[in-house]
Amino acid sequence: MRAWELLLENEAPAPKKVGREFNHLEDLVFTEPNGARRAVEVLKGLSQPEKKISIKWDGNPTVYWGRDDDGTFRMVGKNNWGREEGKSSSPDDLKSFIMSRGKGEDWREKFAGDMAAMWPVFEKATPADFRGYVYGDILFHPGKPYDGANGKVSFTPNQTTYSVKGQSEIGRRIAGAKVAVAAHKVFEYFGDKSGEDFAEPEIFAGNPELVVFGQTYTTTKPAVNADNLSVIEKLANQIGPKVDKLLAPVPGLGDLQTIIYTFVNNQSKAKALDKIDSASFFQWLQNSKVSAGKQAKIADLDKTNPGVMDGMFSLVVELMKAKDEVIRELDQAEGDIVAHTGGKPGGEGYMSTDDAVKLVPRDRWTPYRAD
């Protein structure tokens, strides 16, 4: 191996975005520099009148719809997006593509039929001069309609049931619709990966059979008086800079943040949120896909930075507790939209768009998608 190749191999990689576009509030501790301090400031700011907190809709399935440069309308599911062979130009094309995937699952035929049945509703609502594509999650559709009873409109697109006051503005819009979708992003062309936040639902208001939601904001401002907020702030000030030093990329280990991110998500999915600590991390690490060389480097970092990893995980846990108090307050507020998951108040959670963070109750929420 040439000397310059050896140098490149051992060079610490440039920092890159860890996690997703919107990370969990507590994940800021290890996903970005000075993240613990920012998490504290986000929490404090949630009670401010100018702060916007939006509902994180639990929609399903995912849909992309829009028009090509020549005006051709297309609508596809998540597995079609960006695939030339799945670039449907008719309801039959869409249905055929869905049926050609998978392994003959029992649900697939109904899913394909449901998607095809929504096609004319979306096409009619999409102006002839519209160009580009919108991506969103379905809230209800003819194959899984809403229930209108007792002065409310209720629908369960995935794990969460939403009840909307029938006489509210949103309730009246829903009442005459066949399909509702929570739209998230808008793209310039089919298969585009660099979309922008969707902010113009009124574009698709021409067909009352379709209701398109953009960001849907809560009407309640949480008090944010978590008992442990002062403890978090003190710990963030004391250990935050040390955490940044611990996580800084070094030759042969440029992805420690991603490894920790994977661990925390694993504990969440395993319903082991009471075991987010350094002992559990190293136990998980032994059975992970992380190479033996990287594991040794992580162990060395832990020894040369005593107590820092323990402090980092303590911050994650304490922030999660404070965040859950905010979520409980929002869940219990009697707004126009009330959500229940597993018979308990609350839905998938909330988002603070300006802060690019999500407030998700990990103790009750397990990500799931049927499509």
Layout: helices, strands, pairs:
Layout: H1 3-10, E1 23-24, H2 28-31, H3 35-45, E2 53-55, E3 62-67, E4 73-77, H4 91-100, H5 108-125, E5 132-140, E6 147-149, E7 152-155, E8 160-165, H6 169-175, E9 179-187, E10 196-197, E11 210-213, H7 229-247, H8 256-269, H9 278-286, H10 292-304, H11 308-332, E12 337-341, E13 344-345, E14 350-352, E15 357-359
Strand content: 15-25%
Shape: globular
- Radius of gyration, in Å, reads 23 Å
Instruction: Give a count of the beta strands, DSSP E runs of length 2 or more.
Output: 15
Low-confidence stretches: 1-15
Total number of distinct structural domains: 2
- Main sheet, how many strands, which sense, barrel? 6 strands, mixed
Order of helices and strands: HEHHEEEHHEEEEHEEEHHHHHEEEE
Helix content percent band: 25-40%
Number of helices: 11
Give the CA-CA distance, first to last residue: 46 Å
Estimate the mean pLDDT confidence.
89
Helix/strand class: alpha+beta
What would your notes on this structure say?
The chain has 371 residues and is of the alpha+beta class. It folds into 2 domains: 20-53 and 223-359, no CATH class; 62-213, no CATH class. The chain is built from 11 helices and 15 strands. The protein has helices at 3-10, 28-31, 35-45, 91-100, 108-125, 169-175, 229-247, 256-269, 278-286, 292-304, 308-332; strands at residues 23-24, 53-55, 62-67, 73-77, 132-140, 147-149, 152-155, 160-165, 179-187, 196-197, 210-213, 337-341, 344-345, 350-352, 357-359. The strands form 3 sheets. Strands 3, 4, 5, 9, 10 and 11 form a 6-stranded mixed β-sheet that branches. The chain has a 5-stranded antiparallel β-sheet with strand order 6-7-8-12-13. A hairpin with an 8-residue loop joins strand 9 and strand 10. Helix 3 (35-45) runs parallel beside helix 11 and helix 4 (91-100) packs antiparallel against helix 5. The model is unreliable at 1-15 (pLDDT under 50).
